[in-house]
Design a protein that fits this description.
The protein is an all-alpha fold and about 130 residues long. It is about 85% helix and about 0% strand. Helix 1 packs parallel to helix 7, helix 2 crosses helix 7 and helix 5 packs antiparallel against helix 6.
């Protein structure tokens, strides 16, 4: 489980490393980062509006997104078949899991962005 304090500390350490880069490399860092860093609000909106897992695709987590979609459609299909109770239980489970991600969207995306920043920094230090 992600801890807010650890993610924030890592973000601050990365900021210090970026600040220490020569001007030219810092410019390259920000050009690359602009294309790859994700917005926590977009993640939250995708999670809120589309419970089916589209927010996972936004962060490039294709398997998790596909699993979410499969469970979502399976719950709808079960309800369509008349198995309301089973379909509703499955739907409730996926909804509860996604609500957790919704309320932690800021920290989830910050952690993701820290990883992107670290990768970009590593490529510039070679």
């Amino acid at each position: 489980m992600l801890k807010q304090s650890e993610v924030n500390a890592r973000e601050e350490a990365l900021r210090l490393e970026i600040r220490e880069l020569p001007d030219e490399k810092r410019k390259v860092f920000y050009e690359r980062a602009e294309k790859k860093l994700k917005d926590p609000d977009t993640f939250a909106v995708l999670n809120y509006l589309f419970i089916a897992g589209l927010h996972h695709f936004y962060l490039g987590r294709w398997l998790r997104g596909l699993a979410n979609l499969a469970v979502f459609f399976a719950s709808i299909y079960l309800m369509y078949l008349g198995q309301w109770q089973n379909g509703f239980i499955l739907f409730a489970i996926i909804t509860l899991l996604e609500l957790y991600a919704l309320f932690r969207s800021q920290i989830i995306v910050k952690h993701y962005n820290n990883g992107i920043s670290k990768n970009i920094l590593s490529s510039l230090q070679d």
